[in-house]
Each structure stands twice: as C-alpha cells, then as structure tokens.
Amino acid sequence: MFQQLQITIEGTVQGVGFRPFVYELAQRHAIRGSVENHGGLVSILAAAEQANIERFLADIRAQPPILAHISAIHQEPSSVPLPAAFQIITSSASSGEAIHIPPDVALCADCQQEMLDPDNRRYLYPFINCINCGPRLTIINSVPYDRPRTSMADFPMCAACQREYNDPSNRRFHAQPIACPDCGPQLSWQTAEQQLQGTAALEQAVHFLSIGKIIVLRGMGGMQLVCDATLEQSIATLRIRKNRADKPFAVMAADIDSAQRYCHISAEEKGWLQRPEHPILLLARTATKLPANLAPAIPALGLMLPTTPLHHLLFQQQNCPELLVMTSGNSSGDPIGISNEDALDRLEPLTDGFLLHNREILTRVDDSVAMIEDKKIHLIRRARGFVPSALTIPWSLPPLLACGPQLKNTITLAKEQTSWTSQHIGDLSSPQMLDFFTETIYHFQKVLEIAPQLVVCDLHPNYQSSLFAKALHLPLARVQHHHAHAVAIMAEHGITEPVLAIVLDGAGLGADDTIWGGEILRVEADTYQRLACLEPLPLPGGDAAAEQPWRMALAALFQQNGILALQENTLPDHLCIIPAKQRQILASMLTNGFNSPLTSSCGRLFDSVAGLLGTRLFSTFEGQAAMELESLAHKAMQLTSPLQVNIKQDAGLYLLESTSMAKELLQRLGNNEDISALALAFHHWLMDGLLEIITQQSNGEAVVLAGGCLQNRILLKGLRSRLEAHGMKVYSAEKFPVNDGGLSLGQAVIGGLQYVSGSSNAGH
Q1: Which residues contact 176 (CB under 8 A, 6 or more apart)?
Q2: Which has fewest Cβ within 10 Å: 418, 426, 541, 542?
Q3: Rounded average pLDDT over 509-525
Q4: Domain hosting residue 28, numbered range
Q5: 0.85 exceeded by the pTM?
C-alpha cells in the first residue's frame, strides 16, 4: 500500500548531519519527497510503499547521527505535491516550535586524521571541522542554524569548500563552520615585539611554553591561559598573575596514553574523556610526581584531552610540554574573555604572548567539569559539550525565565515541556559578571525565540539575580533555595511523585528568614515541608565565616560551653595562632549575638570541623576546607571508631546535634587519634545521622541527594549505599550540577507550576 506522510522530528536534529542522514536513508528505501530544517525541527515529506516507509522510520530511530538526539517523531497523512526525486530543501524560519541547538563538540577522529595527513588540503589546519565536530553554540547568532546566521558569515567559502557543503554524500554537507586554509579563519601570534601568522605563530607559541612562559590561547568558547603543568615556577607565576592562590588548575594531556601516566583512569572515565563532549574529569592521581602547587592538598586532578584542532596541533610540535595547564582566560572574578581586542587589553598582565585567531566567538562557554561515580557522570560545571541541550520535563510550563542563584549562576528558559539551562556563568558579584549574566539571558532568549511571561528567582531578595528579576517588571515568583535544589533533580529524572530530599550546601535563605544548608525535606514539584536539619551554629561575621573556618571552629566551641570554651588555656593549640584580639572580638560577637546569625549549613559545619582539627583555618576559594577534609578522610583506610549520633526535636523539627559531635571530636584529637581517621569519622557521623532521620520519616518515597556538598564522593557514595541498603530508590544530579549550577532548573519548574496553579507569590 502506497503512503505519503508529513513527518516532524523534534530534538537536537539541526547542525548534526540529520538532513544528509535522512537523504541517504531515503535513497536506500526508495522514498520520494524532501527534508528541511523548519525552525527548531526537521520536517520530512515521505512517499513510498508502506513497508519502505516503516523501514525508513525504523532506521531514523535506530541509527541517528552521533550528535543527534531525537525527543519525538510525529507523522500525519499528506497530499502535498511530490518532487521527482528526494530533495534537501532550504531551511525555513521558526513558527513557535521548541528549538534545539547542538552544543560545541570536540574534534572528531576523521577530521583529526585528515589534519595530520600531508596529502590532505586541510593538513595542519587549526580550524578543520565537519558535521560531527566543531563549534555550534559559540558561533550562532540566530536560528535556523545556517552559515549566514553564524560568525562564519565573515568567511565566504572557496569553490572546493562550497562543493563539499553542497554534496549530500560528503561529511561536510551543510557543516556551517566548514573552512580550509584558502577561505577560513587564520592563526596569529602576538607579543609587544612580534607578530606572526599561520604555522610560524603556532611554533612560536609552543616555544614560549617550552621555556616556561605563559600564553593566552583563543579556544572554541573563549580565551585560555596555558603553561607547562610540570614546571612549578610557571604555575607559581600564573597563580600570582591570576590572583589564584590555591584553587586547583585543570590540565590537558595529548592523549589517553599520556593521561594515564598521571592519573588512574577507569573504563567509564576513559569513555567520557574521549566522547564528543570532552569534559574535564576529576581523576585520581598516580604516584607520578607533579608540582605541589598544581592542586595543593587535593589528590584529584582535573584532566581533559585536546578539544580543538589547535589543541591537537600544540601537542604535535616536538618541543611541546607533555602536560599543559589549561585554565580560563580571565582575571579572578571576571568572565572568560572572548574577543582578541578584549584579550589584548585585559589579559596582557597575565601572559607573555597571545595565540589568537579571527573567528569571532558570539557566546562565551567555558569547559565542563565532571566526575564519574558509580559508573555515572556527575557534572560539576555544565558548559561546553552539554549546553544548550534541551531537557524534556513532565510538566507543561508557561514561557519563563529562571534567573538562578548568586554563586555558580546559570539561567534557565522554559516553555511547555522543554527547558534550556545555560552554560556556567559564575559569581555575580562584579559588574563584569553581571554583564555576562544579562548577555547570556538576552542571547538565549533570542536564539531560542522565547519571550518570558514569568520570571523566577531565589527567595533571597538581595542576590543580583533576584534584583535583575524584579527589575523586569514581569510576574515574579520567588523560590526557596533548597526546594529548587531538590526539584532540579526531580526534573532531570522525570520524577513527578513526592520525594524525600537530603539537601546539603553552603547557604540558602530559608522560609523563616534564617540561613539553611543542611536540610531534610518532603518535596513535591510545587511545594515542600521541612522535616529536619543540622543543629544550627552561629555564623560569626556572616559571609566572612565562609572564608575563615577558624570562626566556625570557635562558634562550635562557644556552642558547647559558652565564653569559657574560648579562653586560650582551653583552645586547641592550632587555634591559638589566631591573634588574641581577633578571638576577643569574635567572643564578644558570639556573646552578644551581634552579626552572628544561626545557620544549619552543612558547608559551614565542614568548615567548623576543619578548623577544630586544624586542617584549614583560612580559605582562599569556596569549598576549600571541605575539599581538604574529604581528601584527608580518603587517607584513612577504614573507620576505627564512630562518633556518637544524637538527634533531638525542637518545635517539631528533628535536629542532628553537632555540639556533642564536636566535643567528642576534640577529645579524641586530644588523645592523639589520627587526624585522617577523625575526618572519616565525621563523614560517617553525618551520613549515619541523616540516615536515621530519613528512615524515621520515610513512607516509601524515593530519596534525592542535592546541594554542593554532594560533590563529596564519600557523602554521595556513602549515602546512596546506606539508603539503597534500606530498600530506598536514590537519585542525584548527573547531567546537571548538584551544586547551585543546577538551581535555575528547579526554580523554573517550581515557579512555572505555582504560577499556573495560582498558588505562587507571583507579582510585580
């Protein structure tokens, strides 16, 4: 029986070779008709015998291009006049469909082989790409995703590239960034004394690296600062210039074999290192000696493989160092640089030379960071390779913008059953970062063609993201921070039933105007109930306590025995190095309750334990004390003796009591117990206490694990195993960050549902 159908395919189906894939299948199955990009969709007119069309559709579902993701296929009868043969026709504009823009992806094996082939016309060309690799989001200006709407519009194709672009059988058919040395972007090297082009530019950049210099490299989504990762002095110089005292640097290795000289790499980790996304993976270091200042006091190493052709060509140079520091090209607190002019202006004090190119970056996108745990990926920073992939959610939402948190900011746009979460933006404390935030919002609204009817923000009114949301003068929904954390995980996994949520992070404003951060909640998509929390501790000095863990240590001592606990003759020796005057001021603050709000924050509890044990009294980056405490706990082979778990009730709220834990911890420290064993005992105390409360509150619900503290592998793995041993289904974040980077997704769902139901506090 002859059939003629109009077939519509939703998902990531543009810019990934979908039309030539459909064209080839149509030839194979004797299909007449056409295929086109239509807005964010692929539209197919197909006519043939029913059996042929069934095989055609089955192959579309089973064998899509490597970068494609099909979320839905719709079909209906059609009577449109048919062309004589199957055709690929020109893209047409959007008419309101959900738009799916493919992320930027790493160089594919085919292009790498061509780039290293002396007989290929793209030999050693640093901007080689095809339909399976190269820039996408970073060069797109508007949809449909066609060359005139990208920054490649500045580079008219030569005749050879045009033939490839127009040939449906070619791997570069409609590859929008297609280029070659005759018509595409070019490389340049620049210092105050020298300007070079092409191969000479590459050679000089590598020469600088080989003698310990620091260079700026213009990558796919922004500038990168690069130096020899095996030279302590180069790293020390970079730390001084970038004002980055201790925070670990990521590194790039030439290939898997090279990476394995420095890190233990499991089969799953090897797979993810080589996938098109090419994230930075946090890997366990081997005994191979690397400079201590590369990742001070942290045994993990953030490692990635070359992403762009230019990265590969660096390592092809004979004198290139075998391991390179590859970090964001910015001063601390600024967004990553993207333009040559901006780099030459702002980054000149940080570098000894610039390796640049003339393909403009329209959207700044940093490298993604992830870890593999229980054979699953867990994104810590979601950016290149993953953004702007859409998420299909089980709720229908109005067109909206969720503005995210203050730290680790991302934004989310949503419409109907699709949401799009932006790349990592970061800390919104500086005017430059606010510019990046607003730039991202307006660019995403433009390319996704979404005009928000509602804006959603955090409950905290003074976050910069909240102030921006209010200034839009749209209906406004404010969402509690930890509720949003839990619902983000529900959205990622498509969970619509109520769950229990363990949410552990640094800080979020609670519904009672206190600072929460160690919570057990009963959660639905649009509402929640607070069941339990960590026993609140004073936060002396407010935000200063997050930078100075000694403050939280003294707060824990004060909570035990009041002012007597802060006398010098009762303090652990390591806390006596804090000047007496500072300790006296803090004692007065705690006694009088001045600038010492109570907090149930798990992050600040980690700080207090780090201070009590003397592992970290001053932090130079967020989460440093907690990361080092986790690293110390990993050194303990096994738990020797648990800390006592005590749970009490206060006004119907269960409290996991930390006062008695801290007292026991100090007693055991005074008995010269191994400090790594105490760090591990603290982790087990926390997990055992949370488990005890959850088992008391459970009615058979699934449990979600959320918040930045769940980046801690001991907590993530330990809580999951304990809960599953009690028969509970456990979920945590995987393709979205468990930290504040995933918060805007939860905000979007909660705010949208509350707005639709009329139960929110949405107003102007």
Answers
A1: 15, 139, 145, 146, 147, 150, 152
A2: 542
A3: 97
A4: 2-88
A5: yes
